[in-house]
Amino acid sequence: MEFKAKDIAALLKGVVEGDGEVMVNNVSKIEEGKPNTLAFLANPKYEHYIYTTAASVVLVNHDFSPVQQVPCTLIRVPSAYEAIASLLQMYDSMRSRPTGIEQPSYIGEGAVIGEAPYVGAFAYIGKGAKIGNDVKIYPQVYIGEGVVIGDHTTIYAGAKIYYGCVIGSGCTIHAGTVIGADGFGFAPNGDNYNKVPQIGNVVIEDIGANACIDRATMGSTRIKKGVKLDNLVQIAHNVVVGENTVMAAQCGIAGTTKVGAHCMFGGQVGIAGHLRIEDKTMLAAQSGVTNDIPEGSVFMGAPAFDVSKYRKCYVLFRKLPELYGQLRDLEKEIQTLKSKQ
Asked: Model pTM?
């Protein structure tokens, strides 16, 4: 499909600067721009690409002020990043979606499937499962006994949802995700360990590819509304993750920890068990958390502590070889002075 720059601007309530009749039929990154594509500039460190890009149209913030001539048409919007996200969402919604129940697939006794479903080949839906309207279940998905899935949810190929788990409406479960596997619960018995049965469930929303969310020992492991989990995230038994919290890839949360709302965790953050991470906490990538964190904190490091203190400590850490050399020189001077007494 092709669109004129002026039509895109009208859709985004933006302002055209340049040729409003120029056509685009695809999108591209500004540093890899091609003719007849739409790019965007949101991060100032990429500004130099706008003076050489081959993209025909570039979305920019209202306050962008070029320092030299720009070879493309600009569309000024309040936020270029939000504008491109909006366009991509609209484009994605225009893609055709599969419908119907493919064979071979298995639907257990007493399972209920709502209107306009898609069940891909080799999918398994256990007995007593309740599947809402407009749910898309891609090939080789396993849905266990008694699972409940809300309307308009999409479950991509190879995901596994164990018995008794509850998935809300409008959720996206990506490929390879495991929901409701047993938590890591073992009781010491002399030199051995006895497995503690995990009889709870998981109540969950959006999940990335190959994430793993363990079922609760008792009660529920709960991922609340608006949470976004990236790929390869591990959530242990009885963890609660508050509304609109986001976690980047390879984060791991140990059992029974409570994470607040509107938190942001960078990649490979690790959090010990039985802790409280309060609302609006930000954890830098590879932070290791071993204690409770108060609301609104920004922590980094392993073990993690306040980011301003961490940065001061890191400055000293980088100077340790130099400081160590100075200390050795002082020790030698002291020994020399002592030997002359």
From this structure: 0.81
CB atoms within 10 A of CB 247: 27
From CA 170, how far away is CA 205, in angstroms rounded? Answer: 8
Report the chain's terminal Cα–Cα distance, integer Å: 90
Helix (H, G, I), strand (E, B) or coil at 50: helix
Q: Confidence band (pLDDT; 50, 70, 90) for 185?
A: confident
Instruction: Report pLDDT digits (tens) over 81-95.
Output: 999 999 988 888 878
Amino acid at 304: A
Q: If you ran DSSP here, which 8-state letter would residue 14 be given?
A: -
Report, as residue numbers or ranges, the catalytic residues.
237
Is residue 149 within 8 Å of residue 142, measured between CB atoms? no
Measured distance CA(129)–CA(155) in Å, rounded: 15
As given in the structure block, the two tokens for residue 152 are 């308009």
The identity of residue 30, as a single letter, is I
Amino acid at 299: F
User: Within 13 Å and on the Cβ side, how many CA atoms surround 12?
Assistant: 32
Cβ(234)–Cβ(223) under 8 Å? no
* Residue 229 CA neighbour count, 13 Å, CB half: 33
Distance CA 302, CA 279 (A): 21
Contact 122, 85 (CB under 8 A): no
Instruction: State the Cα–Cα distance between residues 105 and 142, nearest whole angstrom.
Output: 10
